[in-house]
Amino acid sequence: MSTEAHTPRSVLITGGNRGIGLAIAKAFAANGDKVAVTYRTPTDLPEGILGVQADVTDEGSIDRAFSEVEAAHGPIEVLVANAGITKDTLLLRMSEDDFTSVLDTNLTGAFRVIKRASKGMIRLRKGRVILISSVSGLYGAPGQINYSASKAGLVGLARSFTRELGGRGITANVVAPGFIKTDMTAELPEETQKDYLSRVPAGRFAEPEEVADVVRWIASDEAGYISGAVIPVDGGLGMGH
Ligand SMILES: NC(=O)c1ccc[n+]([C@@H]2O[C@H](COP(=O)([O-])OP(=O)(O)OC[C@H]3O[C@@H](n4cnc5c(N)ncnc54)[C@H](OP(=O)(O)O)[C@@H]3O)[C@@H](O)[C@H]2O)c1
């Protein structure tokens, strides 16, 4: 971590009430930033973290949540689009709703929040956008055609965003976690978990804090010249992409 004096920034993480999002919120709070998270399900949050209700599939609720955070902490300087869902099943069993609902949350949800955040960032002439993708986005995974498509889409989103707004002091990067120990992966059948583990060169799964530290760093001054990058945090699972 940089030891330079740090001006607290207004940081917002979507889906920050549990899992990777909560670990990211704690990392920014420990860094001295003013941290807010969105939640759908009311949860007890650690002291000092502001919770605002929002569903990323609903533009109106996003706008209300942003306004609440702006009133409390000032314009959002760091946005982490983390909210995500899976609806895994093989292609032939996947309904159109299984596909579009995952895209609506994971990809269109990210579009909605970066669009809302970019207004304030353009005015500030600085900002950091971090999109939480997945190793599945570029590596692929059976049963995840919907999820992989949504997560690969985030790469195009970050890169076009960078080409539009990179000259205004704003960066956008993608962090692509591998297998992280959260509710999302706990739901996977034991056989699937064993199969993943056998393919991870690091020989272990990761804790949410290992993703959070990378996100905090990519939003730091030290990483100010990195934009449009895909940063894997996957123990080597997806390397080569
Ligand atoms: N765990 C892994 O191994 C892994 C690997 C690669 C990528 N990722 C990605 O990392 C991110 C976080 O994953 P996780 O493992 O921490 O998942 P998780 O424990 O299942 O948490 C998901 C979070 O997203 C929120 N969310 C879901 N749909 C939402 C919506 N429509 N509007 C607002 N919030 C919504 C959830 O809110 P509620 O509590 O209200 O449901 C929750 O806070 C996801 O984008 C996931 O795809 C995870």
From TrEMBL:
Location of the Ketoreductase domain: 9-183
Organism: Sinomonas terricola
Keywords: Oxidoreductase
Domain of life assignment: Bacteria
InterPro entries in the record: KR_dom (IPR057326), NAD(P)-bd_dom_sf (IPR036291), SDR_fam (IPR002347)
Entry protein name: Beta-ketoacyl-ACP reductase
Protein family membership: Belongs to the short-chain dehydrogenases/reductases (SDR) family.
